[in-house]
Structure formats: C-alpha cells, structure tokens
TrEMBL record, chain A:
Name used for this protein in its record: Biotin transport system ATP-binding protein
Record keyword ATP-binding present: yes
Source species, domain of life: Bacteria
Lineage of producing organism: Bacteria, Bacillati, Actinomycetota, Actinomycetes, Geodermatophilales
Keywords assigned by UniProt, alphabetized: ATP-binding, Nucleotide-binding, Transport
CC terms in the record's Gene Ontology section: ATP-binding cassette (ABC) transporter complex
Organism: Trujillonella endophytica
Gene Ontology MF annotations: ATP binding; ATP hydrolysis activity; ATPase-coupled transmembrane transporter activity
Classification via SUPFAM superfamilies: P-loop containing nucleoside triphosphate hydrolases (SSF52540)
UniProtKB/TrEMBL annotation, chain B:
Compartment annotation: Cell membrane
Chief localisation class: membrane
Protein name: Biotin transporter
Keyword Cell membrane: yes
Recorded GO MF terms: biotin transmembrane transporter activity
Lineage: Bacteria, Bacillati, Actinomycetota, Actinomycetes, Geodermatophilales
GO cellular component: plasma membrane
From TrEMBL, chain C:
Predominant location category: membrane
GO CC aspect terms: plasma membrane
Protein name in the entry: Biotin transport system permease protein
Membrane topology: Multi-pass membrane protein
Keywords: Membrane, Transmembrane, Transmembrane helix
UniProt cross-references to InterPro entries, sorted A to Z: ABC/ECF_trnsptr_transmembrane
Transmembrane regions listed in the UniProt entry: 18-35, 40-58, 70-90, 97-123, 135-152
Length: 221, 188, 213
C-alpha cells in the first residue's frame, strides 16, 4: 500500500498511509473515527482510495477489483448487515453462485463449512432465528466457503457476548489464511504478528502486539 | 444499479411489508381505520427517489403475487391482483416513482412543504387516479359511484402523507440517500 | 417468516408448470371480460371450483381465506347494480370477479413461491436489453424476505428504548431512528454483496475505472 489517502468530501479519513503487510496475522486498533474501518475496506476494494494505490499480491484494487475480491474475504461487524438470504444454507451458497461454481460442487462446499462451523443442524432455518454468535459464524462461513486466501475482519466480536467472542476468536486463530483483524478488544490480538494503531487517519504505532498495545493503552489513559 | 441500490430496494419492499403487519388504527372522526401500508409507498418514494422507490414497490407486489400474505390484513396471492380493488395495488409502484420524481425535482430546496406536495400528488392523487377507474371498469359501475366508495379513505391518506413528509424531511437531514446527479460520472 | 399461502400437494394441478398456470389465469381474466353472459361466468366459477376442490383437493378453508377479503367489495357492487342496473348485470359482475379471484387463489395455493419467482425472472428476460439482470430479481426478493423479520426486530428494540424513557405505544417519531438504522444496515449489506462477489458478473475494469477520481 503506497501513499494512500482517502477522504469523504471535506473530511480526510486517511492521510498518506504507506504500508506493506506481509505477516500472517495483523491487528488494527484505534479510536472510533480513526480511519481503521476505511483502512480495512481499502484492502479488498470496497473503498477505492482517492489518491495512491492499494496492491494485493501485486493486483491493483482499482483496476483488478474482481481478482482482489476473490482473494480477500471480508467479515463485517454486524452479521445482520452481511447475511443476504433468509435461510442459512442459501446464504452460504450465495457467494459460490456469484463465483459461478456448478450446483453439485456448491452443495458439497456448503455442507462442508456448515459442518465445520456447527451450523449443519440449522441448514434450512431462518437466519434471523440464530443467536448473535451463530449469525457471526454464518457470516464467516459465507465468506470462507468462497475460498479466499486472506480475510479481513472488521470488528467481528464487537456485538458479541464473552462466550461468543471467544468462539469467534478461536475460529480466527485456527485459520490458515492471512488475516487482518480490526478490533477494540485488545486481548484478541495476543498471538498476532503485528499490530497497527490508527490515530486521526495516520498509523501512529506499528510493531508487535506487546509494544503497540501498551503504547495505545498508555495514550488512551 | 449498484449492489447498494439493490439492498435499498429490498429494504423498502420489506418496510412496506412490515407496515402491513401493523394493526389498522381507528382514528376519531375518520370513518375507516387507517392501515399503515401506503405509508411504505410514500416513504419509499420520498427516501429512495423515483427509480429505486418504484422498484421497491414493484418488488413488494411480486412477493405478494408469489403467494406471501404481506398485504395489510394478511392478504396476498394472485387473488388480490384480479379483485375489484387491484387498481390501487397496481398504482403503488407508479405512485412511489412519482413521489420520488417530485422529491428529486425539488431536492435542492427540499422541505416539509415540498415533501407534502410530492406525497399528496404521488401518494394520494396518483393512487386514486388509477384505483377508481379500475374499480369502475371492473365492477361495471360509474366513475362517480366508484369514487364515492373510496371517499372514506381520503382522511387517513392525508394523515399518512403528513407523517411521511415529516419523516422524509428528518431522514434526509440525517441520512440522505438521494444523490444529486453530476459531481461524478455515474459509477456502476 | 410469514407462512406462504402455498398448500402442499402432489396432484396434477400442483405439478403443472407455474408459467402455464399463470398463462391460463391471464387468459381466463381476458375471456371472462369478453363474455358477458351469465351461463359463461357461472360455468367458469363452477369449473374453477371443480379444479380447486376436486382435482387439486385444496381444503375449502384455504380458498375461502383468500376470497374473504373481496366480500365487502362484491356486496357493494351487487347492491349498486341491484339499485341502478338490475340483477342480471349485478350477478354477472359478481360471479365473474368471484371466478377470477378463486382461480387466482387456486394458482397461489398450488404453486411454490420459488416457482412463481422463477416465472417472474423468465418474464423479465427480454428486459436484459435495458441492462436488467433477471437473476438479480431473485436476489432482491431474497433480501426482502431477509429484511422483514430484521426490521420488525429493530422496530421492537426502538419501541422498548422509547418505553424505557417513558414514551408508551407506537409513535410515528420512532420511524425516523428506525429508518436511519435500517438504511445504514442496507448500506453495509450492499458492501457485503460486493465483498461476496454479487457484482462479479459485471465487467469490473470499467466499473472500477468509473469510480476513480
């Protein structure tokens, strides 16, 4: 990511951020409005920068959007804003249909992730009857079923209780994918390789979790 | 249409359905209880604008026609589309489109007065202009007779137009969905 | 989710293609309007009832439930015609409407929602000329069904929040926070659609180029 800046109208949300993310697990923290959510959206082209370039595996999010999206999955904070279809299996299948996967393979892959995330018993249930934690697992399943190489999580546990936060944290820990996790829950980042602290649209600190999280907590207190 | 527009269209189709679930409210001085469903027509037009508002109501009608009982009072299916009051249903997407069109037309100086104009023209006049002749032709009755039958609904519709206008103005202040053309070449 | 008006069954009416049933319903609507004779409309009603109750074996309740909302209209029409034009026209008008509404109820009760949506997508195919993608109709309908319980739930929450601060009953002022909340939700859902490849079939370079500064 080079010299990236982004603004919404008058308000600059990111200024001159230049970064290369090569680590397996990267955490992003920062106050509300610090630009971390926009940063996350830049990584899979949901937001195209007003200036500068975002490259994912050398692919420009501006010109090779489709390929970038295929490689980078995105999990949102509120699963209700991510679940598209009324029933569980249909929703997981949605992304595969968009990828043009043939029906038989779709069914197989849907079944596989439903089992992996403990949703197999809810296959034909209405999504709105799931618990908050199950909804977030469904959202994650719907992204992972598409076979991305990297996954960006935008505050995946903010709306969850402690038990479900741990469950989602464990799911993230077990992923072989490269992940970027934006969060307010600092303990989520314990085993991470690198943590970025955003402040007023800039990267204010960048390093191992131990260093950056302490810096962040000191600053906030 | 961008994906976001599809989501907005689905949202207002659903809002119209949810408004239909609300029980009819008896209002003192008005002969028939007010149902909230046409509030959905007005809100779709005034919040989303012409194209998306019209499509939202079209989507709603397709879902009803497909057999979901989402019209107020739990009605649905194809029967309501061939009944004597079907003209009112058919008018909804057009009404939402007209409301949206008028809202966009007055967008730069949009206020409560303009919102009222849009909702009264699109949400009341257009609906009766289509609903009454339909009943008249369908039931083989004169226009006057068909119009007399629907008079009792007018006070409720005026109340709804007022509510929709107040809500539309407030929503536009906090979260404007209608964008002015230009500034950017249309994406998507 | 609100239950559909579909009544499960396996007879020939259930198995008939949805497109055919809709086509016949449309033909019946036109035919009954051309024919102004009592025998024809009465025969049509009898035929429809025979198909619905006899062949499709629908419970009378299922049909009645769908016809019931039309009763007040039919009575008003009958009254009007008895006063102004005579019993013959009145009976024709009422039987004609009753036949049509019942036929529509039979189609609705014997056809799955998904099958009817597929017909709509099929009918929308010619619109591809204008850039409409018929497959997206199904997507929008799915999202509508997803949104209905969600909106109801959020409305309930706002009502509770307002009740906690002393405001009882539903007030239309609650519509403003509700709408803003669900508009935000829809906005993010739009992003989620893109993130999950809903716009993938479009030629992406042109799209991305268009939103560049």
């Amino acid at each position: 990511m080079r010299e990236v800046a982004h603004d919404y109208g008058e308000r600059a949300v990111l200024r001159d951020v230049s970064l290369t993310l090569a680590e397996h697990r990267v955490g992003v923290v920062g106050a509300n409005g610090s630009g971390k959510s926009t940063f996350a959206r830049l990584l899979n082209g949901l937001v195209v920068p007003t200036s500068g370039t975002v490259l994912v595996d050398g692919l420009d999010t501006r010109t090779q959007l489709r390929e970038v999206r295929r490689r980078v999955g995105f999990v949102f904070q509120d699963p209700d804003a991510q679940i598209v279809h009324p029933t569980v299996a249909e929703d997981v299948e949605f992304g595969l249909t968009n990828l043009g996967v043939p029906p038989q393979e779709r069914a197989r892959r849907v079944e596989e992730v439903l089992v992996r995330y403990g949703l197999a018993g809810h296959r034909d249930h209405p999504a709105h009857l799931l618990s908050g934690g199950q909804k977030q697992l469904l959202a994650i399943a719907g992204v992972l079923v598409m076979g991305p190489q990297r996954v960006v999580f935008d505050e995946p546990t903010t709306l969850l209780d402690l038990a479900n936060t741990r469950r989602v944290a464990r799911v993230i820990d077990e992923l072989e994918h490269d992940v970027v996790v934006v969060t307010h829950q600092l303990d989520l980042l314990a085993g991470f390789d690198r943590v970025l602290v955003f402040d007023d649209g800039r990267v204010a600190a960048d390093g191992t979790p131990a260093e950056t999280v302490r810096w962040y907590v000191d600053r906030m207190s | 249409m961008k994906s976001r527009d599809l989501a907005y269209v689905a949202l207002f189709a659903a809002i119209t359905a949810v408004l239909g679930l609300l029980p009819a409210v008896p209002v003192p001085g008005i002969p028939v209880p007010i149902t909230a469903q046409t509030l959905g027509v007005m809100l779709a037009g005034s919040v989303l604008g012409a194209r998306r508002g019209g499509l939202a109501l079209l989507t709603f009608l397709v879902v009803v026609a497909a057999g979901l009982p989402l019209l107020s009072g739990g009605r649905g299916g194809l029967g309501v589309f061939v009944g004597p009051s079907a003209g009112y249903l058919y008018s909804w997407p057009i009404a939402a489109f007209v409301i949206g069109f008028l809202t966009q037309l007055t967008w730069r100086r949009f206020n409560l007065a303009w919102a009222m104009v849009a909702n009264l023209v699109g949400g009341v006049a257009v609906i009766y202009a289509l609903g009454i002749p339909f009943t008249s032709i369908y039931g083989d009755v004169s226009l006057t007779a068909a119009a007399t039958g629907s008079l009792s609904f007018i006070p409720g519709d005026l109340v709804k137009a007022g509510i929709a206008s107040v809500v539309a103005v407030a929503v536009h202040k906090a979260y404007p969905v209608i964008e002015l053309p230009r500034r950017r070449p249309a994406a998507g | 989710m609100t239950a559909a008006l579909y009544v499960p069954g396996a007879g020939p009416v259930h198995r008939a293609p949805a497109g055919l049933k809709l086509g016949l319903l449309a033909a019946l609507a036109v035919g009954l309007f051309v024919a102004d004779r009592l025998e024809v409309v009465a025969g049509a009603l009898a035929g429809v009832l025979l198909i619905g109750l006899g062949v499709a074996r629908l419970p009378g309740r299922a049909l009645l439930a769908q016809v019931r909302p039309v009763w007040p209209w039919l009575l008003a029409l009958l009254a009007f015609h008895l006063v102004f034009t005579g019993w013959h026209t009145g009976t024709v008008v009422v039987l004609r409407l009753l036949a049509l509404v019942t036929a529509a109820a039979v189609v609705t009760a014997t056809t799955r929602v998904t099958a009817l949506v597929a017909v709509v997508e099929w009918l929308a195919r010619p619109l591809a000329v204008f850039g409409v993608r018929p497959a997206r109709i199904g997507l929008v309908i799915a999202m509508t069904l997803r949104f209905i319980p969600l909106i109801a739930e959020r409305a309930q929450r706002i009502r509770e929040a307002q009740a906690a601060r002393g405001a009882d009953g539903f007030r239309f002022q609650a519509l403003v926070p509700l709408l803003i909340q669900v508009l935000r939700l829809a906005h993010t859902l739009g992003e989620a659609l893109d993130a999950r490849g809903a716009d993938a079939p479009a030629p992406s370079p042109r799209r991305a180029g268009a939103s560049a500064p």
